Amino acid sequence: MSPAQSAVRFARIIQIGFLAATALYVAVLLEVPPAPNSISPVLVPVFVFVAVSTVGAGVFLRSILVSRSAEKLSANSQDAAALTRWRAGIIASFSCAESVALMGFVLKFLGASWSIAAFFFVATVLLLLAWTPCLDLPSSN
Q1: How many Cα atoms sit within 13 Å of 32 on the Cβ side?
Q2: What is the structure's pLDDT at 141?
Q3: Domain annotation covers residue 84
Q4: pLDDT of 22 above 90
Q5: Is 10 a member of any domain?
Q6: 22 lies in some domain
Q7: In terms of residue numbers, what domain contains 9?
Q8: Fewer CB under 10 Å: which end of the chain, C or N?
């Protein structure tokens, strides 16, 4: 297995870990339901704004680190520096997506309804699935 193929495999394992962490956040909320509490009406829009900003940061990181490195790796799969940048971009973008789930987790504990918190969890899962790591590597023939 080439280093690039190994990096893709590693990134997919990381992706599964982030998906599992999101499921665990929901499981914790179901197992230990937060005390009913009224939440400030200003808090939800603030969290939505921060979540959208975080997703924007993830998209930016993917365009800068992942896309550019993938282009370099499609020409030369042995470029170690590009592979390192690609891997860092994948992990950083997954972290941005996961932080959206953390915001939903916090909102639910602060007293938000499930319909509001679920939006954050669903957004995280969709982002993690949309950002599935892959590389178009040159054939080794």
Answers
A1: 5
A2: 44
A3: yes
A4: yes
A5: yes
A6: yes
A7: 3-34+45-130
A8: C
